[in-house]
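[09:14] KT: can someone run the structure on this one? pasting the chain below
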Amino acid sequence: MTESIEAKIGSLAPDFSLLATNGQTILLTDFRGKQNVIVFFIRETTCAQCRTHVAQLGKMHEKFREAGAEIIVILGEDMEKAKEYAEGIELPFPILCDPDRAVYNLYELEKYFLLFQRTASLVVDKDGIVRYLKRTTMPNVWLQESRELYGFMLSIEEDQPVMQ
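[09:31] RB: done, structure tokens below
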């Protein structure tokens, strides 16, 4: 079992490697030095609020890319369920599979009272540092999250020096 870390704003985000629905193996460190990353952990495939948030991230994907961020969505299910989920929403980015929820545990997203799956949204900057982190067991917070994340991404880009 993977040990959890104390993920907090200002800490180095722990790396992970997961298989994506497009067949690629994606590591968080693949983005280091290149672009910011938004990481969203889906609570459950049946969570309507999570589905709405992921669909909104999909619709805003180009805006996020223009703001210097890529999106990673992690689902604690096997590849078959992850592909069904991604195809049902028609996402422009792959879903990463974490069937044993090792990365969920790494980011301290164990089930609350063994019943309610915790979820999180975070931003990891180009240096691998957690700049934004919101954990919850109540998925209704995600209904405004896409716009909040977009505003946060714009503020990060303004804070970082432009590389030429």
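[09:33] KT: thanks! The chain has five helices and seven strands.
[09:34] RB: yep, looked fine to me
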